Amino acid sequence: MGFSFFYTLAIVFFPSEDFRKEANVKNSTLFEEAAQDREAFWAKQAECLDWFKPWDQVLDWKPPYAKWFVGGKLNACYNCLDRHMGTSTQNKTALIWEGERGEEKSITYEELYAEVNQFSQALKKLGIRKGDKVAIYLPMIPEAVVAMLSCARIGAVHTVVFAGFSAESLKDRMVDAEAKLLITADGGFRKGKLLPLKEMADQALKAVPTVQNVVVVRHTQQPIALTSGRDHWYDHLIGEAPTECPPESMDAEDELFILYTSGTTGKPKGIVHTTGGYLVGATMTTQWVFDAKPSDIYWCTADVGWITGHSYVAYGPLANGMTQLLYEGAPDFPERNRFWKLIEKYGVTILYTAPTAIRTFMKWGEEWPQGCDLSSLRLLGSVGEPINPEAWAWYHQHIGGGRCPIVDTWWQTETGSIMISPIPGVTPLKPGSATFPLPGIDAKIVDEAGQPQTSGYLTIASPWPSMLRGVHRDPARYEKTYWKNGSYFTGDGAKLDEDGYFWLMGRVDDVINVSGHRLGTMEIESALVDHRSVAEAAAIAIPHPIKGQTIVAFVTPKEKASFQPGFEEELKLHVAQIIGSFAKPERIIFINDLPKTRSGKIMRRLLRDIAEGRVAGDTTTLADPSVMEQIKAKYQED
Ligand code: PRX
């Protein structure tokens, strides 16, 4: 994947004087301070938080292990809630929630504080203590945020599992995390349908002996089964709980959460984030990149099940006392203007969404946003994959009315907070480029040997506060996957243009990105070969005009009978059951043999050549080069 128009696009959008004048960051001072002394710079930024005890040392760096704000004590929930009490934020709306069927709820900071205190007490009553792991499997409802903050308050480590994941995926994550408790709901809503979350949770829990208690949020009111002694209604627990729960004093380096993400093997990795550094990153980037103001109505459309929902729904906006919108539902329910109706209704000022959504809106046509008043918007954001300049231009014109800067934010689950992005009052924008590393972020593009280049691997050469601290229970994988030549290896390719702008070129490994969902090709392959009739499978990603990338799988079945019609659908469903329906391959091609080297390595590169209609690369190392013709014929015929 790449941008052929890379150097040719000359349009640069400069921040308007009006925007700059009011912006949180108006000039390049932050960049200069960071360049002068990175550690001193981060120490100054860390003052944005309330600390119970100041740190003794800013950074302890024993590559590849970093400790930030060593000896400092704080609590993430305290920084999102308690410190706003007694200020003008106390009575301000923290969360506006709207459900797909139009239900509404509005919660002030004070109300959120009260509910979090009660739920924290409830968790304690169920035996949850500092360091315990709590899994969260909830739809986009305020209780998801309450659950995360309550864990943080008592020092429990949350691991949120996206509600689109299957029972099998939920089970794997709970087992790996050794979760002691699960917070779920009776169900969720999506496109008018009910998601059977509790049913899935029950199925998953059969194989998770560590979970002793399950908290169930009453949301859809659908009938569900409760296991007596194990399952508890959230509202009952809250009703009985004391109203105050003192926040636990956490070490800056105590774990805040584990979030599972896909890598290049079949097994997702539990990315570990700690308290102090993570919160400094999430809080400050919200101020710089989203230009957070007390008057904003902010809307990040990401689910709390992904890192974006952690840093830019739960922690960053609340630490900054922002008012934000949460929407549980689809963008085309009941009609294709639902997002624009929401913006009009609540006067949203900042919208943060994904390129795949923008391309879908483009396909639906500008008549949908045109019918709504979007004049409240002042800033737009994009995340998850490179935004192609056409989508950028459409977003800018039809959603932003030509007046809103677009912050194209590059970052990862592992980086914890935004790394490369415009700062809207300062950075001249080039559509399709994430522009420059943020202050304090030492991003470098290098070759295999670690030498600086204008095109190559994107790396981060110095530690930063919100960086991952490890892979849960797998230090070897942390060291091997992420660290090369003393630098953090992102797995992304990038280019620098003549003005020093960074252009992200997509992954250089077997990680793919379908509609902003990160997946490993190996994960899909493991799900396919898990089917009793599959002998071998190779999954590849090919470019897709809306989803960014889409999955094509090549499968060799075990039995002839498996070629029967309907088998393709059955296999797709199997992948949905193992991972989640967002991981379903778009096409499955059944073949007799995969292109393999003499040592048995599957040459996915050659499959990509076929799928993208290119002349196949070097096939001389193949054990049987004739398979290429057969696969090609099969690919074209299907
Ligand atoms: O390939 C990059 C792409 O998404 C990957 C990270 O995925 P995940 O950990 O799920 O986090 C997504 C949300 C932060 C990256 O390695 N990516 C993310 N944002 C961008 C991007 N690629 C290009 N431009 C972006 N703005």
Largest beta sheet: strand ordering? 5-4-17-16-18-19-20
CATH topology of the largest domain: Rossmann fold
CATH superfamily (homologous) name of the largest domain: ANL, N-terminal domain
Query: What is the makeup of the main sheet?
Result: 7 strands, mixed
- Total helices: the number is 20
Poorly predicted runs are: 1-8
The shape, in one word, is: globular
- Helix proportion range: 25-40%
Strand content: 15-25%
Report on the structure:
- By secondary structure, this protein is of the alpha/beta class.
- It is built from 20 helices and 31 strands.
- α5 (about 110-125) packs across α6, α10 crosses α11 (about 305-320) and α19 (about 605-610) runs parallel beside α20.
- The chain has two domains: about 5-495, 3-Layer(aba) Sandwich (Rossmann fold); about 515-635, 2-Layer Sandwich (GMP Synthetase, Chain A, domain 3), CATH 3.30.300.
- Helix content is about 30%, strand content about 25%.
- Adenosine-5'-monophosphate-propyl ester (PRX) binds next to α11, β20, β25 and β26.
